Amino acid sequence: MDYKWRHRYFPLRHCIKFSRVPAVPVESQTMKTTLMVLLWYAAATFSNTFCKRLVSFYKISPLTLTMVDAVPAVMLLKRDAKARQIYRDHWKALLVISVFATGASLLHRISLTYAHVSTIHTAKATQPLISAVLSGLFLGEHITSKMALALVLIVVGVVMCTMKGGGPKVADQLEPSTVAGVTLALCGTVCTAINGINMKKVWRNDREISKSMIFSVSRTVAACMFFPVWLFRDAPKIRDGSIGNPFDTRTALALALYSVVMVTQHLSSLSVLHVLSPVSHSVLNGLKRVVVIAVSCYIFGNSLSRFNWLGIGICTSAVMWYSRLKLANSRAKKDEYSSVTTDEDSTAAGVDMETMASRRNQPSPDKKEDSPERQLERLDRIV
Hints:
Blueprint: H1 2-9, H2 26-56, H3 62-79, H4 81-89, H5 91-111, H6 117-124, H7 127-138, H8 145-161, H9 176-205, H10 211-240, H11 249-275, H12 278-299, H13 306-361, H14 372-382
Main location: membrane
Protein name: Sugar phosphate transporter domain-containing protein
Region (Disordered): 336-383
């Protein structure tokens, strides 16, 4: 049927010449990647500063923002049937990921009610150190002394980004509210680091699970989990007017814009990760945090001094140094593994060659010895 159909509807198919799709030039691919990185940075900066505006100006509850995040996640989940199948297969692991991801975002938004964006990102800059410690405890991944020094320099550089001048006075005064915000941000950072370890374990079991699937499934599950809490805690306050009403026209438009920016940030980050290596993505992620701190200091009136710019330079250099050390360490492990595998293969090949040679030299059990009597018998049969 297929041949008849093709012969009937494409009688001149032998006259058609199919040409190869031209390869994308390197300059065009570099330009696209650069634009995607700029979009990622712009979306991250806008989402952080706009989240501060929503919490402080519009009086939107952090739990309400968490529920708003579930709207695009549910839309993505409806369009992806494979994500639903993966949730059925790995629902326990994805449930733990959902709890920690929601806890991290919720603690981050609550911390923004107590301190500025720059101070919160200063606390969140300790994530590489926390991730290194937790990875060593649970995954057995150890770092060298140079990598630990690079991580310390990253934290020092980010702290210097939010210092006033050269003194020990941070852009936010160390009031009790600021201390509470920093504590909540650190708890959220621990949740993020634990969540990263959980995702590594899930990815080891199933390579088909992507970040977009984890994003859609985790946000949807988190919305289902926290909806009763939001209904009994925030719904009465919304009716009383003590907190912002998300169903107001102006507030709803602001929340819709915030949701679009959050999805843009997530998808642009995935696009950059698809084009570049994970090490390059981590370098850009560290630089993104510095950009967010610098822009937030400028928007909220915290002027940047030479000391702040020195901190930005230290953080950027430390991130690049750490990524280079990590890449060299991974290459050394791969070379060591390949050399061991090659030695084992060569040893096995040598044993196989010796076995084949010994088998080749052995007399066949089926063939009997060709004696003179046997030759005479064959001659008699021929005659």
